Amino acid sequence: MRISTLTIFDQSMSSLNRQQSSLMQVSQQIASGRRVVNPSDDPQAASQAVQVSQSLAINEQYADARISARNALAQEESVLDSVNDAIASARTLIVQASSDTLSDANRASVASELRGIYETVIGQANATDGNGRYLFGGYQDGSEPFVRDTDGSVSYVGDSNSRAVRVDASRLMPVADNGEVIFQSVSAGAGYMAVAADSNQGSITFNGPQVVNANDPDYGNAFDITFSVSGDDVSYSINGGAAEVYEAGQPIRIGGLSVTLEGTPADGDSIRMDKAENLNTDLFATFEKALAVLEQPASTDAETAARKNTLSNVLREFDNSLDNVLTNRASVGARMNELDVVDSVAGNRNLNYEQTLSGLVDLDYVSAISEYSLRQIGLQAAQQAFIDIKGMTLFDRM
C-alpha cells in the first residue's frame, strides 16, 4: 500500500503532539503537587474534592465562630467573678452592720462603703464586650440593660433572650446570659425566707426558717403567721387557722419548716414565710433595702426589730444571689469546656477531610516521576522515529 509523504508527516506530528501533551500534563502535576490539576484529569475525583473542600471550609468557619464564642464567654466569666467578689464583700459588711455594738454613725459608715459596692455592681451589670455591645442585655445589646428610675431604683430594660452562636453544625451555644437571669433571679434550690410586714409595730424578730422535713405534705406552700394581743395574752395563727399561745424563743414548726421568734409583737403584726423565688429576687433591690435601714437611725424597739429583720433578710438574699451568680458562672465554665471538646472533635474531623482530599487530588511523586521519565522516553522515541521516517525519500538517493 502506498502512503503519501503528507500522511507520514501528519501522523508523525500527531504522535509528537500527543507525547508532548502527555509530558506537559505530568510536568504540571509535578509542579503543582496535585494529581488532579484540571477536572478533566479525573472528573469523579474532582467532583468529590469540591464537596470535601466545602465541608472543610464550613468546618473552618465553625472554628472561627468558636473563637468568638470563647472570647464572649471569657468576658462574661470575668464580669461574674467581679460580681461574685462584690456580693461577698457586701455580705461581710451586712454581718458587721448587724452587730448590736455599732452606733448609728458606724452603720452610716458601713452604708457608705456598701453604696460604693452597689455602684460597682451596677457598672458590672452594664459591662460591654469591648465592641460597644452590652453583655447582659439579651438581643437589646445596643443600650444599657439596667437603668435608674426616678426614685433611684434600678430596672432591667433588656429582653429575656440570650445571644447564641452556632459553634458546630448541631450546636447553637448561648454566649451571653441576659441580666434577668444573673441579677434578678435565684436558683431553684434557694429555699424559704421569712419577711416581716412593713406595718409591724412590735419588736418581733425571727431566726430562720430552716427546713426540717422537705417531705411534709404542706412543704412548698406559703405561710402567714399573724399575732393577736389582748391584754397580757399573746397568740398567733397560721394562715388564719386556730390560735396558738406565743412563747418567745420557742420554735414554730409548720409545713416542714421551723422558725424561732423573739421579742414582743403588737396586735396585727405578721410574718410571711415563702419560697425565696416568690419574694425579692432582685440583687439591686436588696442593696437598696440594706442601704435604707443602715442610713436611717433606729430610735424605737419596733424600728430596731425592723432593722434586724431587714438585715437578716438581706443576708439571705445576698446568699441566694451569690449562689445564683456562682451557678451561672459554673454554666459559663461548662460551656467553655464544651467548646474545648467541640474543638477536639472538629480537629479530628478536619484531619479526616484533609486526608480524604489528599487521597483524591494529591500527587504520588514516585509514580509521577516514573511516569515523567517514561513520557520523556516516549517523546524521544517519537522524535527519532520522525527523523528516521523523514529520511526515507528517493531524493536522498539521487
Helix content: 40-55%
- Helix count equals 7
Largest sheet: 5 strands, antiparallel
By CATH reckoning, the class of the largest domain would read Mainly Alpha
Name given to the CATH architecture of the largest domain = Up-down Bundle
Question: What is the oligomer described by this structure?
Answer: single chain
Give the integer mean of the pLDDT values.
82
Structure notes:
Belongs to the bacterial flagellin family. It comes from Microbulbifer celer. This protein has 398 residues and is α+β, with helices and mostly antiparallel strands. The protein has two domains: 235 residues, f41 fragment of flagellin, N-terminal domain; 89 residues, no CATH class. It has seven helices and twelve strands. The strands form four sheets. It has a five-stranded antiparallel β-sheet with strand order 5-12-7-8-9. A hairpin with a 2-residue loop joins strand 7 and strand 8. Helix 2 runs antiparallel to helix 3, helix 2 packs antiparallel against helix 6 and helix 5 packs antiparallel against helix 6.
List keywords for this structure.
5-stranded antiparallel sheet, Flagellar hook-associated protein FlgL, flagellum, 53% helix, single chain, f41 fragment of flagellin, N-terminal domain, 7 helices, 3-stranded antiparallel sheet, alpha+beta, cell projection, rod-shaped, bacterial flagellum, 398 residues
